[in-house]
Protein backbone atom coordinates (compact mmCIF):
# COMPACT_ATOMS: atom_id res chain seq x y z
CA UNK A 1 0.00 0.00 0.00
CA UNK A 2 1.63 3.22 -1.16
CA UNK A 3 -0.52 5.97 0.32
CA UNK A 4 -3.24 5.36 2.88
CA UNK A 5 -6.21 7.72 3.17
CA UNK A 6 -7.47 8.16 6.74
CA UNK A 7 -10.88 9.76 7.18
CA UNK A 8 -12.61 10.86 10.37
CA UNK A 9 -15.83 12.86 10.49
CA UNK A 10 -14.95 15.14 13.39
CA UNK A 11 -11.94 16.99 14.72
CA UNK A 12 -11.83 14.72 17.80
CA UNK A 13 -11.48 11.73 15.49
CA UNK A 14 -8.44 12.96 13.51
CA UNK A 15 -6.55 15.54 15.57
CA UNK A 16 -4.47 12.99 17.53
CA UNK A 17 -3.43 11.35 14.28
CA UNK A 18 -2.56 14.59 12.48
CA UNK A 19 -0.42 15.62 15.46
CA UNK A 20 1.74 12.52 14.80
CA UNK A 21 2.49 13.40 11.17
CA UNK A 22 6.11 13.66 10.09
CA UNK A 23 6.80 15.97 7.07
CA UNK A 24 3.30 17.41 7.38
CA UNK A 25 1.88 19.21 4.36
CA UNK A 26 -1.62 20.76 4.29
CA UNK A 27 -3.71 21.22 1.13
CA UNK A 28 -7.12 22.94 1.09
CA UNK A 29 -9.69 21.57 -1.33
CA UNK A 30 -13.50 21.67 -1.46
CA UNK A 31 -13.69 22.94 2.11
CA UNK A 32 -11.42 20.15 3.37
CA UNK A 33 -7.89 20.31 4.80
CA UNK A 34 -5.95 17.30 3.57
CA UNK A 35 -2.98 16.62 5.87
CA UNK A 36 -0.28 14.54 4.22
CA UNK A 37 2.81 13.06 5.86
CA UNK A 38 4.25 9.89 7.38
CA UNK A 39 3.10 7.86 10.42
CA UNK A 40 4.78 4.56 11.41
CA UNK A 41 6.80 4.76 8.21
CA UNK A 42 3.65 4.83 6.04
CA UNK A 43 2.63 7.66 3.74
CA UNK A 44 -0.82 8.86 4.76
CA UNK A 45 -3.34 11.56 3.86
CA UNK A 46 -5.63 12.42 6.79
CA UNK A 47 -8.88 14.40 6.52
CA UNK A 48 -11.69 15.56 8.78
CA UNK A 49 -14.52 15.02 6.30
CA UNK A 50 -17.48 16.44 8.23
CA UNK A 51 -20.55 14.57 9.40
CA UNK A 52 -22.83 12.30 7.36
CA UNK A 53 -22.80 10.48 4.04
CA UNK A 54 -22.38 13.23 1.43
CA UNK A 55 -19.37 14.78 3.19
CA UNK A 56 -17.82 11.35 3.62
CA UNK A 57 -18.41 10.29 0.01
CA UNK A 58 -16.99 13.50 -1.47
CA UNK A 59 -13.92 13.32 0.74
CA UNK A 60 -13.23 9.70 -0.21
CA UNK A 61 -13.40 10.47 -3.92
CA UNK A 62 -11.09 13.46 -3.53
CA UNK A 63 -8.52 11.37 -1.64
CA UNK A 64 -8.61 8.73 -4.37
CA UNK A 65 -8.71 11.02 -7.43
CA UNK A 66 -6.56 13.96 -6.29
CA UNK A 67 -4.23 12.45 -3.68
CA UNK A 68 -3.82 8.97 -5.18
CA UNK A 69 -4.52 7.04 -2.00
CA UNK A 70 -4.68 3.32 -2.73
CA UNK A 71 -6.44 2.26 0.46
CA UNK A 72 -8.80 3.97 2.89
CA UNK A 73 -9.26 3.70 6.66
CA UNK A 74 -12.27 5.31 8.31
CA UNK A 75 -11.71 5.97 12.00
CA UNK A 76 -14.16 7.31 14.55
CA UNK A 77 -16.96 6.53 16.97
CA UNK A 78 -20.24 4.63 16.65
CA UNK A 79 -23.37 3.60 18.52
CA UNK A 80 -23.47 -0.06 19.70
CA UNK A 81 -26.09 -2.36 18.18
CA UNK A 82 -24.78 -5.81 19.14
CA UNK A 83 -25.53 -6.69 22.78
CA UNK A 84 -21.99 -7.77 23.58
CA UNK A 85 -20.52 -4.35 22.81
CA UNK A 86 -19.60 -1.99 25.63
CA UNK A 87 -18.64 1.66 25.58
CA UNK A 88 -15.02 2.03 24.33
CA UNK A 89 -14.94 -1.38 22.58
CA UNK A 90 -13.84 -1.37 18.94
CA UNK A 91 -15.67 -2.66 15.87
CA UNK A 92 -13.60 -3.59 12.80
CA UNK A 93 -15.86 -3.64 9.73
CA UNK A 94 -16.36 -6.90 7.87
CA UNK A 95 -18.65 -4.97 5.52
CA UNK A 96 -20.77 -1.83 5.45
CA UNK A 97 -24.20 -0.82 4.17
CA UNK A 98 -26.28 2.35 3.82
CA UNK A 99 -29.43 1.33 5.67
CA UNK A 100 -31.41 4.48 4.88
CA UNK A 101 -31.53 3.91 1.12
CA UNK A 102 -35.19 3.06 0.57
CA UNK A 103 -36.63 2.25 -2.84
CA UNK A 104 -38.99 -0.34 -1.37
CA UNK A 105 -42.03 1.01 -3.31
CA UNK A 106 -40.17 -0.20 -6.43
CA UNK A 107 -39.69 -3.66 -4.92
CA UNK A 108 -36.11 -3.32 -3.70
CA UNK A 109 -35.55 -4.30 -0.06
CA UNK A 110 -34.68 -1.41 2.26
CA UNK A 111 -30.94 -0.74 2.31
CA UNK A 112 -30.57 -1.90 -1.31
CA UNK A 113 -29.44 0.60 -3.93
CA UNK A 114 -31.39 -0.08 -7.13
CA UNK A 115 -29.37 -1.06 -10.20
CA UNK A 116 -26.11 -1.59 -8.33
CA UNK A 117 -24.43 -5.02 -8.37
CA UNK A 118 -24.21 -4.94 -4.58
CA UNK A 119 -25.24 -2.71 -1.71
CA UNK A 120 -23.07 -4.62 0.78
CA UNK A 121 -19.53 -3.30 0.54
CA UNK A 122 -16.93 -5.77 1.78
CA UNK A 123 -13.90 -4.62 3.74
CA UNK A 124 -10.43 -5.68 2.65
CA UNK A 125 -9.31 -8.94 4.32
CA UNK A 126 -5.71 -7.79 4.70
CA UNK A 127 -6.78 -4.56 6.40
CA UNK A 128 -9.21 -6.41 8.69
CA UNK A 129 -6.38 -8.76 9.66
CA UNK A 130 -3.94 -5.89 10.30
CA UNK A 131 -6.52 -4.27 12.59
CA UNK A 132 -7.42 -7.47 14.44
CA UNK A 133 -3.73 -8.46 14.83
CA UNK A 134 -3.11 -5.00 16.32
CA UNK A 135 -5.81 -5.75 18.88
CA UNK A 136 -4.49 -9.27 19.63
CA UNK A 137 -0.81 -8.40 19.83
CA UNK A 138 -0.67 -4.93 21.42
CA UNK A 139 -1.49 -4.29 25.04
CA UNK A 140 -4.64 -2.27 24.28
CA UNK A 141 -7.18 -1.49 26.98
CA UNK A 142 -10.32 -2.39 25.03
CA UNK A 143 -11.92 -5.33 23.24
CA UNK A 144 -12.23 -5.49 19.46
CA UNK A 145 -14.87 -7.32 17.41
CA UNK A 146 -15.42 -7.82 13.71
CA UNK A 147 -18.87 -7.02 12.33
CA UNK A 148 -21.10 -5.06 9.99
CA UNK A 149 -21.14 -1.26 10.15
CA UNK A 150 -24.52 0.23 9.21
CA UNK A 151 -24.63 3.83 8.06
CA UNK A 152 -27.40 6.41 7.74
CA UNK A 153 -27.94 10.13 7.94
CA UNK A 154 -29.24 10.09 11.50
CA UNK A 155 -27.93 9.90 15.06
CA UNK A 156 -29.65 6.81 16.44
CA UNK A 157 -30.97 7.35 19.96
CA UNK A 158 -34.07 5.17 20.35
CA UNK A 159 -34.63 1.46 20.91
CA UNK A 160 -37.06 1.04 18.02
CA UNK A 161 -34.55 2.20 15.38
CA UNK A 162 -31.75 0.36 17.14
CA UNK A 163 -33.67 -2.93 16.99
CA UNK A 164 -34.43 -2.52 13.27
CA UNK A 165 -30.74 -1.88 12.52
CA UNK A 166 -29.71 -4.85 14.66
CA UNK A 167 -32.34 -7.36 13.57
CA UNK A 168 -33.23 -6.41 9.98
CA UNK A 169 -29.81 -5.16 8.83
CA UNK A 170 -27.54 -7.34 11.03
CA UNK A 171 -25.68 -4.25 12.20
CA UNK A 172 -22.94 -4.49 14.80
CA UNK A 173 -22.66 -0.73 15.19
CA UNK A 174 -24.25 2.33 13.60
CA UNK A 175 -22.72 5.59 12.47
CA UNK A 176 -23.08 8.22 9.74
CA UNK A 177 -20.15 7.92 7.28
CA UNK A 178 -18.63 4.44 6.93
CA UNK A 179 -21.11 3.03 4.40
CA UNK A 180 -20.64 6.03 2.11
CA UNK A 181 -16.84 5.73 2.31
CA UNK A 182 -17.16 2.00 1.59
CA UNK A 183 -19.47 2.69 -1.36
CA UNK A 184 -17.02 5.12 -3.00
CA UNK A 185 -14.05 2.83 -2.27
CA UNK A 186 -15.94 -0.06 -3.90
CA UNK A 187 -16.70 1.98 -7.05
CA UNK A 188 -13.00 2.87 -7.33
CA UNK A 189 -11.84 -0.69 -6.51
CA UNK A 190 -9.86 0.65 -3.56
CA UNK A 191 -9.56 -1.50 -0.41
CA UNK A 192 -11.00 -0.07 2.81
CA UNK A 193 -11.73 -0.84 6.43
CA UNK A 194 -13.75 1.01 9.07
CA UNK A 195 -12.50 1.15 12.67
CA UNK A 196 -15.09 2.49 15.11
CA UNK A 197 -14.96 2.83 18.89
CA UNK A 198 -18.26 2.63 20.75
CA UNK A 199 -19.27 5.98 22.27
CA UNK A 200 -22.91 5.10 23.16
CA UNK A 201 -25.51 2.36 22.90
CA UNK A 202 -27.72 4.03 20.27
CA UNK A 203 -30.65 4.01 22.73
CA UNK A 204 -32.46 6.67 24.74
CA UNK A 205 -29.30 7.34 26.78
CA UNK A 206 -27.16 7.79 23.64
CA UNK A 207 -26.98 11.60 23.64
CA UNK A 208 -25.66 11.68 27.21
CA UNK A 209 -23.18 8.81 26.92
CA UNK A 210 -22.00 10.15 23.57
CA UNK A 211 -21.01 13.50 25.09
CA UNK A 212 -19.23 11.75 27.94
CA UNK A 213 -17.33 9.13 25.94
CA UNK A 214 -16.75 10.57 22.47
CA UNK A 215 -13.24 11.84 23.27
CA UNK A 216 -11.91 8.66 24.89
CA UNK A 217 -13.56 6.48 22.23
CA UNK A 218 -11.95 8.57 19.48
CA UNK A 219 -8.57 8.05 21.17
CA UNK A 220 -9.14 4.26 21.24
CA UNK A 221 -9.98 4.28 17.56
CA UNK A 222 -6.82 6.29 16.82
CA UNK A 223 -4.69 3.83 18.82
CA UNK A 224 -6.04 0.99 16.72
CA UNK A 225 -5.23 2.87 13.51
CA UNK A 226 -1.64 3.61 14.56
CA UNK A 227 -1.02 -0.01 15.56
CA UNK A 228 -2.66 -1.17 12.38
CA UNK A 229 -0.46 1.11 10.21
CA UNK A 230 2.61 -0.75 11.56
CA UNK A 231 1.17 -3.94 10.07
CA UNK A 232 0.19 -2.72 6.61
N1 LIG B 1 -21.96 7.94 16.10
C1 LIG B 1 -21.76 7.67 17.40
N2 LIG B 1 -22.91 7.26 17.98
C2 LIG B 1 -23.85 7.26 17.01
C3 LIG B 1 -25.23 6.96 16.99
N3 LIG B 1 -25.87 6.55 18.09
N4 LIG B 1 -25.90 7.08 15.82
C4 LIG B 1 -25.25 7.50 14.70
N5 LIG B 1 -23.95 7.81 14.68
C5 LIG B 1 -23.25 7.69 15.82
Automatic annotation (TrEMBL):
Limits of the Nucleoside phosphorylase domain: 3-229
Pfam family for this entry, one: PNP_UDP_1
Annotated GO biological process: L-methionine salvage from methylthioadenosine; L-methionine salvage from S-adenosylmethionine; nucleoside catabolic process
Enzyme class: hydrolase
Record InterPro entries: MTA_SAH_Nsdase, Nucleoside_phosphorylase_d, Nucleoside_phosphorylase_sf
Enzyme Commission number(s): 3.2.2.9
Coiled-coil boundaries: none
Key word Hydrolase present: yes
One GO term describing the cellular component: cytosol
GO MF annotation terms: adenosylhomocysteine nucleosidase activity; methylthioadenosine nucleosidase activity
Pathway named in the protein's UniProt entry: Amino-acid biosynthesis; L-methionine biosynthesis via salvage pathway; S-methyl-5-thio-alpha-D-ribose 1-phosphate from S-methyl-5'-thioadenosine (hydrolase route): step 1/2
Keywords: Amino-acid biosynthesis, Hydrolase, Methionine biosynthesis
Gene3D superfamilies: Nucleoside phosphorylase domain
Protein name: adenosylhomocysteine nucleosidase
The species this protein was found in: Peptostreptococcus russellii
Lineage: Bacteria, Bacillati, Bacillota, Clostridia, Peptostreptococcales
